[in-house]
Structures are given as structure tokens and as C-alpha cells.
């Protein structure tokens, strides 16, 4: 990253002038924390006492036998408090807010997972908390809204525009412009204006630091490949950072293929060629947009992957070919989910199941002495109704993943 927050040609900070000073202050607070030798140990203590860190690296012996190729290991971010890697980021930002002496946090949320994680952090640290959420999403995500409110947050339904995530983002920024003296904006992923991508990536690097140590202990050498799903890119950046300097470790990001990239109903910004460079929401990255630069509607069975932009850090690693990008369709995801439940007694989140799909496609052709790691970003309990609905439509069964080949069952 350069001084202005660019990763190659990607990133930057395209923000209204009134927010310049706030971003400068945030950047300074972050850099001071990063160079303070006491800060990371304090973060580790918090995460081990409050969020089950270090999370285990599980050897998936049954899946490894099933595919007969590489040894399959699963990094268990589902065992974090609130059920996903999001806790790594929000708790870290909580410590930073305390350091800056601010008393209130705001966030925007689509599916509600980031809202719940932020409300949890605010309760723990004693901050006031306001969550912006599109009216449409408030209706779709009742259980998450319920918990945010019970945790003490104020949830504000946003009624402008399409009443979904991007309108909530605008509304949260409007709040911040008038409240920045005592309020911190909790960014949920490695996106947005500098310094957010750098800051969120740093907190999430805890995943990769642990995973590197754990695979060396369990397998005796580095993994050949590491797989992670990519929404905004924070769980992927989290685990990839453990292996970025090891050229022999191949890194694979899996985006939401939705109904198939050829249908246009997906959220693949880097895999395939539907994405294009643009500046929106305060930063430059690869977006899904039409020829006028209007953001397109995206689709995925996994709400957390359903986003038009992607981390500028990943756009850079994509351009440099350090990370390979692919996509998994909704139906492939259902097949991988069922296989993982039956073979290992583990229920991945729909988001995480995208990474499982790609690992299952590649494992059989890898040699037995090799290992691969799947980053399991979260647990699937939250997806119960979506999964139950999807299982009613048996068309996913034609994607049963057998020894890495997908075949039509009929
Ligand atoms: C939010 C979420 C994601 C997507 O976010 P990233 O920033 O791409 O990691 C993935 N998995 C789970 C379980 C999530 O809750």
C-alpha cells in the first residue's frame, strides 16, 4: 500500500471534504495502534477470552478419504463468538474506538450479521450503537433485527432508494458527517475508503497467522492451496495474509456464481469478465456495473457474498495474478453443504460453502502428500430457512460432487 491508500491502481479515499479530518484522525489512531507493541497482545487477550481464539484447524478425515487426493483441513472461523470471522474485525475496531476516546459506533448492514456483531461489540465496550439497514432487509432479517435491538442497538430502517444495503451505506455516512466528533463508523469488510481496507485486513490477519502455525504443526509443511469465499473479501484476506509471502502456496478466492455467470445473476466481480473498474462508495475497485456506471443488481443464495464491489487489495492481487478467482453456483453450494454435513458433522454458512465447492473440485487431482485449507468463515445455523427452502428444489442434486467431478444424476 502507498501513502494514499492505493494497492497498485486500486483503493484510495474518495470522500467528502467534511470527512477529511475524521479519516486522517482514524488513520493516525490505526497506525499508532499498529506500531504500539502492547496493542496486538491486548487484542489477542480479548479474542482468546471472548471469542474462542485461536480457532481450531480441523483435519477433515472423512472428506479427505472421500476425495482420495489432498488432505483437507478446515479453519474454523465458525467457532468465533457470534458465529463468524466478523468478530475479529469488530472487536479490533472496538479497541481502537476506546483508544480514540469515542463513545458511539454506527454501522450499516445488509443481511444483518455485521449489525449483530457490531451491536455485540458495543454492548461489551459500553458504546451507544446505531445500525442502518434498508427497510427491505429489515423485513427479510427479523431475527437479526430482534437481537440487535435486544443487545441495545437502535436499528434505523432506511426507506430511500431501493431500501437495501447501498441506501443504508449512504444513510450511515450522512450520520457520520454530523456526528464524527464522538462517533466511529464500523466498516464490516476490507472495502471502503483508506484506511478501512488496511485496518480490517490487519485485524483479520489473525486467521492466517494461526492457520500457518497450525498447518505446519499438523502437516509438517505448508499447504499447496488455500481456499476462501469472497464477499467484500475480509475472511479471504484474513487467511491469505498467512501465506502471501510463500509463492509455493496457491491462493484461491471463490465468488458467488449465483444462477451462473452466463445468466448475469451472480456477484462475480473478478472471476469471469462481468466486472469492470470503477470508483464508488469512496474507493476504486472492480465493480459490477452497467455501461453508464450504474451499479447492477447482484444475486447469490448467500447474502454475505451479494455485493457489487470487492476489496481493492484483492483487485490488486487479482491483477498481479497472486490470487486465482473462481465462482461457485447456488446449486453447487447446496451439494457441497450436504456433503460436508453428512461426512463431517459440520454445517458451513452458505457463504463459506462456496470455498468448499472449489476445494472439492480440486482435491481429487492433488497428490496425497499435499494439504489444502478451506477457510470456513462462519456457521450455517443462521441460514436455516434459506437452506430448508433450497433443499425443497431438488435440482441441486444434479450437482452432487463425486470425487471432484460434478455429474448429472439422471
Ligand atoms: C459476512 C460474511 C462473509 C462475507 O464477507 P467477507 O468480507 O468477504 O469475508 C462470508 N462468510 C460469512 C459467514 C459472513 O458472515
Strand content: 15-25%
Number of domains: 2
Shape: globular
Strand segment count: 16
Mind summarizing the main beta sheet?
6 strands, mixed
Order of helices and strands: EEHHEHEHEHEHHEHEHEHEEEHEHHEHEE
Q: What is Rg? A: 20 Å
In the CATH hierarchy, what is the class of the largest domain? Answer: Alpha Beta
The secondary structure category is alpha/beta
CATH topology of the largest domain: Rossmann fold
Structure ligands: pyridoxal-5'-phosphate
CATH architecture of the largest domain: 3-Layer(aba) Sandwich
Read across the widest sheet, the strand sequence of neighbours is 3-4-14-9-10-13
Distance between the termini: 51 Å
Helical content (DSSP H or I, runs of 4+): 40-55%
Oligomer: single chain
Task: Look at the structure and give the mean pLDDT.
Answer: 95
Low-pLDDT windows of residues: none
Count of alpha and pi helical runs: 14
Task: Kindly describe this structure.
With 410 residues, the chain is of the alpha/beta class. It has 2 domains: 153 residues, Rossmann fold, CATH 3.40.50.1100; 236 residues, Rossmann fold (3-Layer(aba) Sandwich), CATH 3.40.50.1100. It has 14 helices and 16 strands. The strands form 5 sheets. Strands 3-4-14-9-10-13 form a 6-stranded mixed sheet, sandwiched between helices. Strand 1 and strand 2 form a beta hairpin. Helix 4 packs parallel to helix 5. The longest helix has 24 residues. The chain binds pyridoxal-5'-phosphate.
Amino acid at each position: 500500500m502507498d501513502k494514499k491508500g492505493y494497492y497498485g491502481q486500486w483503493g484510495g479515499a474518495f470522500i467528502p471534504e467534511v470527512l477529511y479530518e475524521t479519516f486522517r484522525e482514524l488513520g493516525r489512531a490505526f497506525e499508532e495502534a499498529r506500531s504500539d507493541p502492547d496493542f496486538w497482545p491486548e487484542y489477542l487477550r480479548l479474542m482468546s477470552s471472548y471469542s474462542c481464539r485461536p480457532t481450531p484447524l480441523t483435519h477433515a478425515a472423512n472428506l479427505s478419504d472421500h476425495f482420495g487426493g489432498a488432505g483437507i483441513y478446515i479453519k474454523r472461523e465458525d467457532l468465533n463468538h457470534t458465529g463468524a470471522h466478523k468478530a475479529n474485525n469488530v472487536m479490533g475496531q472496538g479497541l481502537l474506538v476506546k483508544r480514540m476516546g469515542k463513545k458511539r459506533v454506527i454501522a450499516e448492514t445488509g443481511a444483518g450479521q455485521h449489525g449483530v456483531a457490531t451491536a455485540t461489540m458495543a454492548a461489551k465496550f459500553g458504546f451507544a450503537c446505531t445500525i442502518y439497514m434498508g427497510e427491505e432487509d429489515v423485513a427479510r432479517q427479523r431475527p437479526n433485527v430482534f437481537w440487535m435491538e435486544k443487545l441495545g442497538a437502535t436499528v434505523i430502517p432506511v426507506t430511500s432508494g431501493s431500501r437495501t444495503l447501498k441506501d443504508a451505506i449512504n444513510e450511515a455516512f450522512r450520520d457520520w458527517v454530523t456526528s464524527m466528533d464522538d462517533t466511529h463508523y464500523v466498516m464490516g469488510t476490507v472495502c471502503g475508503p483508506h484506511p478501512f481496507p488496511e485496518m480490517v485486513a490487519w485485524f483479520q490477519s489473525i486467521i492466517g497467522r494461526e492457520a500457518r502455525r497450525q498447518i505446519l504443526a499438523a502437516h509438517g509443511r505448508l499447504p499447496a492451496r488455500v481456499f476462501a469465499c469472497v464477499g467484500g473479501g475480509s475472511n479471504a484476506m484474513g487467511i491469505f495474509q498467512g501465506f502471501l509471502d510463500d509463492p509455493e502456496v496457491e491462493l484461491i478466492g471463490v465468488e458467488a456464481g449465483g444462477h451462473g455467470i452466463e445468466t448475469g445473476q451472480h456477484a462475480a466481480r473478478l472471476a469471469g469478465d462481468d466486472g469492470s473498474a470503477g470508483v464508488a462508495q469512496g474507493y476504486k475497485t472492480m465493480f459490477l456495473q452497467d455501461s453508464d456506471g450504474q451499479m447492477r443488481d447482484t444475486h447469490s443464495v448467500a447474502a454475505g457474498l451479494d455485493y457489487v464491489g470487492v476489496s481493492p487489495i484483492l483487485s490488486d492481487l487479482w491483477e498481479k495474478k497472486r490470487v486465482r478467482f473462481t465462482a461457485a453456483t447456488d446449486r453447487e453450494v447446496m451439494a457441497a453443504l450436504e456433503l460436508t454435513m453428512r461426512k463431517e458433522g459440520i454445517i458451513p454458512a452458505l457463504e463459506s460453502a462456496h470455498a468448499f465447492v472449489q476445494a472439492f473440485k480440486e482435491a481429487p487431482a492433488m497428490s496425497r502428500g499435499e494439504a489444502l485449507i478451506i477457510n470456513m468463515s462462519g456457521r450455517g445455523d443462521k441460514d436455516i430457512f434459506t437452506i430448508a427452502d433450497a433443499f425443497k428444489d431438488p435440482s441441486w442434486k444434479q450437482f452432487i460432487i463425486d470425487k471432484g467431478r460434478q455429474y448429472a444424476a439422471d
